[in-house]
Amino acid sequence: MHRTLFTPAMIETFRSCKKAYELASIKFTNGGAPVRASVICKKFILRALAEINRGKLDTVNQVQKYMGQNWPVEKLEDQIGEKEKATRAFLFAYKSLIKYVGKPYKPRDAQVVAVALKVRARIAHVRVYVEDTLDMVLWHPSEKRLEIVDFQLQPLKPFDPAWPSSSVLVKYYLAEKLKTRWPFEKLTMTSYRVGTQDFQPISINLEESMYRLHWSELVKTLDEMKEDKADSKTSVPHAKGSCQYCNNLVSEPINDKPGDANTSFRLSA
Q1: What is the pTM assigned to this prediction?
Q2: In this predicted model, what pLDDT tens digit does every residue of 154-168 receive, in sequence order?
Q3: Do 192 and 151 contact (CB within 8 A), yes or no?
Q4: For helices 8-16 and 166-176, angle between their N-to-C axes, nearest 10 degrees
């Protein structure tokens, strides 16, 4: 199968485990891949955060009403199968959104210029497209700085400017396409963890030199991904415990460790 559109998640999976990438390609091509409960919850929380950042939800009562009208209870019960876990998922989402609506992320003098912005751009010499959804874009006019905010539900991984991830590189490339709308001179990437506790966001300034140093390697990966030679009729054996990416394709990562019942429902990307 010839592929021409790639997301950071696809690139990260391919680079980390080609077997997992092949498994995912077969499952999604055949249309037989159910949406995991963690993915359903994460998508719901991101949609609610977008409504908060747009200013459509700004009180606890509005968040409560939004959850009552939109919480995917049937989909989650079908995937989780246990009422207690479904309840924990609801409480985690509820408490996380209530906490965020009370103190949304907006640095001083920043303007919210885009929310849940899907950006796609072509890489001409390899004839492929990259696409990502930017959770929130902030414009700092006094600094001529654009800030891309990425909301996370898992513990934040520290940035290493010397070795940027595929996601950071793709976001930089896509941000360059936004200069006609926001002529920035500086670009910042912020990871913000949403949850039931206070978490410190992590921000880095993205430098063009860093981007140029690593971009060619990412382009080589995209060129390799372009031709997917997996036969969708072939069953690829799965070795349990082989890697995180493979395991995520065959099981739902629900954390049952004792502790706070409101946070023990694990949400992974």
Answers
A1: 0.82
A2: 998 877 777 888 999
A3: yes
A4: 150
